[in-house]
Specification:
The complex is a heterodimer of chains A (140) and B (480). By secondary structure, chain A is of the alpha+beta class. Chain A is 24% helix and 44% strand. Chain A contains 2 helices and 7 strands, in the order ββαβαββββ. A 4-stranded antiparallel beta sheet of chain A has the order 1-2-7-6. Chain A is globular. Chain B has a single domain (7-479), classed as tRNA-splicing ligase RtcB (Alpha-Beta Complex), CATH 3.90.1860. Chain B is 35% helix and 26% strand. Chain B has 17 helices and 19 strands. The longest helix of chain B has 36 residues, at 276-311. Classes of the chains: A alpha+beta (140), B alpha+beta (480).
Chain lengths: 140, 480
């Protein structure tokens, strides 16, 4: 996946990702997939359970941050690991997504990174002539 | 280097002149050598950005371990007027009351040398660490409320350590004004699962040896001597703190829009100290601070037990006592002399350590005549420094000094640089036994990913905002 849908960039203390997508749905999905990849090796995650995630935001950037915040809450607060993401409903300031994955199992899964939070620092969601682009920096 | 203009004031300070929307100038404590390492790091710009915030007093400061954060730089210090000023969750950081606790023992290096491998393994087994590590405790909601209100005292009441530990903890291990009603259910839920865990990333527990004493008199008063064994714990408020910061950041981003405040970065979102949003955050932040103190108190207790079991010695023989516990991610209400008047200010320390001198009313009797011990952890295996607070810190830096080494390599650069190397083997060759739950952590926390701790500490020592007392060398380390 890496290189096509997102790219990790350097930020001294943290991890930043640039995300690409053909439309807003794809962009948001790729952002979620980038987060799943940063957390664990998604090859080891089975898509056995579904989780519906909803988010709202004051603008697109805020929506992206709030969406990823929800994802992180289910991972670090509820012990989920995700593999797939499908946007069920996408509006300018609201979205519904369906994520597939399973509950963390110490025997099969290795957590690579503890992402403390999604930051507003240099966050970006924009439509270029070719595609949609986004940028998010995580505090790790 | 970023586009910010820096002018040298003296050997330890560089000024960012007040320009555009800046309300005060910026001052960076650093050296010619450390200045070179700033490179493309945007932290000077962040120092200037903080100077835009309402009610900022005197200047926006950064310590020599400064590096690029989000909103505020890591290593940033800024004080705000209680009436006209703001409080910003981003100026505290996600890991509220991330801090250090140093315990001294009666043991000397020779006495544990043969047991070191066993000791590190036992600590690794007894102290839950790693990403999202969960504790074995079953914390009830009622107990969690007490943790959020009473901090380290709750832990002592439950049998983790003794009452004597409290006066050796900043604020006696409990911040006033904490209100659990201001903490979200999500934060409480995450907090319940993680009390009594070390965490991951740059958090660690390290066995150290006092290697060098710089100030005999103070070291003696602290009870430190050469070759003495000590244990350093670096940890914070875990998921509870991250969630509180995140909850209030979300709320304040909206609040800033309603105030019509024009900020250079959304991550600087804030609220006036006198607003509901500001007061609520302060009350919630206090809960996270208390949680972190309770957490480090418990980690210390298990360390004591582990030493006793492994070395088969009694508590008297080991004599593990707390030198000090101090935080480096926090906002505190403190008094300062400004233009001849004593005023209450809200001091943000984001990756900066309180460094109060002898005679400061906030200190407990134990340190009233000596000054506050300041704990500066290095990167993994680099050891640490014990400094003492000074009057000059109160006069110049709102009673603050540096907090550690500060990163120079990003995590991905560090991972790249560590390719094909066994970091734990390299550490062992240097005489440090390391056990870590994640291979990635070891790579990311590679020693050369950090600024040289000696250089950082030399700057604050030369600047006089804290004074060197002792240097400690690591011999064992457990990491998440």
């Amino acid at each position: 996946m890496q290189g096509k849908t997102y790219k990790v960039f350097d930020h001294t203390a943290d991890i930043g990702v640039e995300i690409f997508g053909q439309n807003m749905e794809a962009l948001f999905c790729h952002a979620a997939l980038a987060v799943f990849d940063l957390i664990t090796d998604v090859q080891t995650v089975r898509a056995t359970k579904k989780k519906r995630v909803e988010a709202e935001g004051d603008d697109r950037e805020d929506l992206l941050i709030n969406f990823l915040r929800e994802v992180l809450y289910f991972v670090y607060g509820k012990g989920w690991l995700f593999k797939t993401c499908r946007i069920v409903k996408m509006e300018e300031r609201r979205l519904v997504a369906e994520l597939e994955g399973e509950i963390f199992d110490a025997g099969r899964h290795e957590i690579k990174t503890e992402i403390k939070a999604v930051t507003y620092h240099q966050v970006l969601v924009e439509q270029t002539s070719k595609e949609w682009r986004g940028r998010v920096i995580f505090d790790v | 280097m970023s586009s910010i203009k820096l002018q040298k004031m003296d050997d330890c300070r560089w000024i960012i002149p007040q320009e555009g929307g800046m309300r005060v100038p910026g001052i960076i404590y650093t050296s010619e050598q450390l200045m070179k390492e700033i490179g493309s790091d945007e932290s000077p710009k962040q120092v200037a950005n903080v100077a835009h915030l309402p009610g900022i007093v005197k200047y926006s400061l950064a310590m020599p371990d400064m590096h690029w954060g989000y909103g505020f730089p890591i290593g940033g210090v800024a004080a705000f007027d209680m009436k006209k000023g703001i409080i910003s969750p981003g100026g505290v950081g996600y890991d509220i009351n991330c801090g250090c606790r140093l315990m001294l023992t009666k043991l000397h290096e020779g006495e544990i040398k043969g047991h070191l491998q066993k000791l590190v393994a036992a600590l690794y087994r007894n102290i839950p660490s790693g990403v999202g590590s969960k504790s074995n405790l079953k914390l009830s909601s009622r107990d969690e409320e007490r943790v959020l209100l009473e901090g380290a005292k709750w832990a002592v009441d439950k049998g983790y350590g003794s009452m004597e530990d409290l006066p050796a903890t900043e604020d006696n291990g409990a911040m006033a004004g904490a209100d659990p009603a201001k903490v979200s259910d999500r934060a409480k839920e995450r907090g319940k699962q993680q009390l009594g865990t070390l965490g991951s990333g740059n958090h660690f527990l390290e066995i150290e040896v006092v290697e060098e004493i710089f100030d005999m008199q103070t070291a003696d008063a602290f009870g430190m001597e050469k070759d003495q064994i000590a244990v350093l714990i670096h940890s914070g408020s875990r998921g509870l703190g991250y969630q509180i910061c995140d909850d209030y950041l979300a709320r304040m981003v909206k609040h800033v829009v309603s105030l019509g405040l024009d900020l250079p970065d959304r991550q600087l979102a804030c609220a006036y100290l006198e607003s509901n949003e500001g007061r609520d955050y302060l009350a919630a932040m206090g809960c996270a601070a208390n949680y972190a103190w309770a957490n480090r108190q418990m980690l210390m207790h298990w360390t004591r037990e582990t030493f006793e079991e492994t070395l088969k010695k009694g508590p008297q023989e080991i004599g593990m006592r707390l030198l000090y516990d101090v935080c480096h991610n926090i906002a505190k209400i403190e008094n300062y002399l400004i233009e001849g008047k004593t005023v209450k200010l809200c001091v943000h320390r984001k990756g900066a350590t309180r460094a109060f001198p002898a005679g400061h009313p906030a200190l407990s009797e134990r340190y009233m005549k000596i000054g506050q011990p300041v704990l500066i952890p290095g990167d993994m295996g680099a050891g640490s420094y014990v400094l003492v607070g000074t009057q000059k810190a109160v006069a110049e830096t709102f009673g603050s000094t540096c907090h550690g080494a500060g990163r120079v390599l990003s995590r991905s650069q560090a991972t790249k640089a560590s390719k094909g190397r066994s970091i734990s083997k390299e550490m062992a060759e240097k005489g440090v036994i390391v056990m870590a739950s994640g291979r990635e952590t070891l790579r990311e926390e590679l020693p050369e990913a950090y600024k040289n701790l000696d250089h950082v500490v030399e700057v604050v020592h030369q600047a006089g905002i804290s004074k060197k007392v002792a240097k400690l060398r690591a011999v064992g380390c457990i990491k998440g």
